[in-house]
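Pinned message: reference record for Transcriptional regulator, TetR family
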Amino acid sequence: MAPRRHDPDRRDRIIDATLQVIAEGGVAGTSHRRVAERAEVPLGSMTYHFASMDELLREAFTRFALRISERFAARIEAASDIEGLVEAVVHIVHDDLAAGQDELVLTLELYTLAARQPVFRQITHDWMRRSREALGRLVDARKTHEVDALIEGLFIHAHLDPVPRSRAATRAAVRRLLSL
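Predicted structure (tokens):
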């Protein structure tokens, strides 16, 4: 029997490769074979580390959502007052939630899975909870829900509308919601 190759980072590489494959071809175009090729691991490693494609997708989207949540929280934590929050939200909408086409695709793929399958909905619920916790440092509980929902809607419009929303329009909408 051949000795096993020591590869402690293999599982992480598979998860990262999964996100890359999803960004390129969507969830529907993601397979164990494509992920294994991208991660440069034997196909058998896929089932060794993940019992199913759903488990792999859950792990990948959880990692993605945590990464975006951390970026979101850091941006909000840098705001020291409501005016700082307004500017943070503008950056979140226009820069942070989709720091490139891959992240835009990953976010929308996760939303689609969450709409269909409760296990993925939990990932989005956890993501929203973390967002509201960060926002709650500067606004009350009712406003955290409203600002979080506004961010999601503005993000979609800013990145999918043929005439993207300007930063000034986003700033004005956030200021109106916060009654500034």
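Pinned by admin. Summary line: Residues 32 and 46 are 6 Å apart (CA to CA).
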